[in-house]
């Protein structure tokens, strides 16, 4: 599809992604997923479940899930919402991705008590008080 220059429809992309993931060609499935303009949760779940079925891929599973959640929030302009932002901060920090949590906090438009509490709580829990 890529070499011919054609642009497949969404259903075709999801079908190919699912097939690639089933064949454990996860790098190819991920590449196609990332080339989609607006991948659906079905496409994301096909790749995530492919990684989940492969032992030792916990880090990739979390990374894909995190990308899916954050991408969805940004696409729907929910990342500017203080409650969604604080939830993403908690998600990142609970999984040890404090840098991602800090970036989410830094780029938030509104920093109210909910946002500050989420960030400070996660910093303390990850023993990064300074």
UniProtKB/TrEMBL annotation:
Molecular functions per Gene Ontology: RNA binding
Keywords for the protein's UniProt record, in alphabetical order: Repeat, Transit peptide
Record bears the keyword NADP: no
Biological processes, Gene Ontology terms: RNA modification
Domain of life of the native organism: Eukaryota
Transmembrane domains' residue ranges: none
Protein name as catalogued: Pentatricopeptide repeat-containing protein
PANTHER family assigned to the protein according to its UniProt record, in alphabetical order: PENTATRICOPEPTIDE REPEAT-CONTAINING PROTEIN
